[in-house]
Amino acid sequence: MNEPETTPPEARLNPFRCFDRGFLLESILVALGIVAVAFAVKSQPRGTPIKIAAAALESIAFGWIVARSVLSVRRLDELQQRIHLIAIATSFAATGVVLVALDFFAKAGAAWRPGGAETWIGMVAVWWISVVVLNRRYR
Length: 139
Known about the structure:
Elements: H1 9-12, H2 21-40, H3 49-72, H4 78-107, H5 116-137
């Protein structure tokens, strides 16, 4: 996918340009929706149908944003797509190593086990850092 000649060179160097204002607004709205659903069912006992339905709705909403973020990368040129692919692989591998190490330490009584939110935040952070580092490497 070639970019039009009217695209400024500095925009072509931005590896996150596929995440435009529309995507960011959608992400914020979905995140607020997830928080609103969680807050609405907070007083419900665990295991009730309403709480389970809320968890399903939150999971679908979160999955939507994850899928949208990965699909947004398709709008980038081949080099930027490759950078994101390597960054995602790096993030996957680093997260796996950290989770297994923390599990070993937790079984030994010396660490805590992170939940899904902490794990996801860590993966996204490693992905972002990897994209920045790789993008500088290919300049």
